[in-house]
Amino acid sequence: MKKYRILFVCMGNICRSPAAEAIVRTKAGKAGLSRVLEADSAGTHAHGEGGRPDPRMVKAAAKRGYDLGGLRARRLVDGDFARFDRILAMDRQNLEYLRDRCPPDLRDRLGLFMDFAGGAGQREIPDPYYGNAEGFERVLDLCEAAGRGLIDAVAGKSAAYPNRTTD
Questions:
Q1: What's the pTM value of the predicted model, to 2 decimals?
Q2: Reported CATH class of domain 4-154
Q3: Rounded CA separation 95/91 (Å)
Q4: pLDDT above 90: residue 2
Q5: How many Å separate Cα 46 from the centre of its chain?
Q6: Residue 117 and residue 113: Cα distance in Å, rounded?
Q7: Which residues are catalytic?
């Protein structure tokens, strides 16, 4: 089985993308796919580079069994476009930033994480930063749904491994 390297991207790399990384790593481990799936996360801006994820996300994720404690915010670097097989944005704004920055021959690696959620009814994971605890729970719900689809796709259980996002 091919090794897949997946990068999750949001703006600051302190809420959504670290949650997606932790969820996918956990689900990959439970599915026996840890050796074939590498997950990482980055921010398009990551002003708090080197800092820990938002404490509200850490707390909400821990209640569900996801450990974000060892993660640190980092900024997307140009080398990420060649290093990762898929670069999945949390929303269209970050996807557009990726498209603008990505070399044209690698743009087929870009997409939205929610494209893996199937019938979830939405394509973006909203930023919970300025909201309340319910926003963080919603982010986790959406990341879990997309994470299940991604794991199924990597495991070959699904033909839903989308090549790119179409708007």
A1: 0.92
A2: alpha beta
A3: 6
A4: no
A5: 15
A6: 8
A7: 10, 16, 127
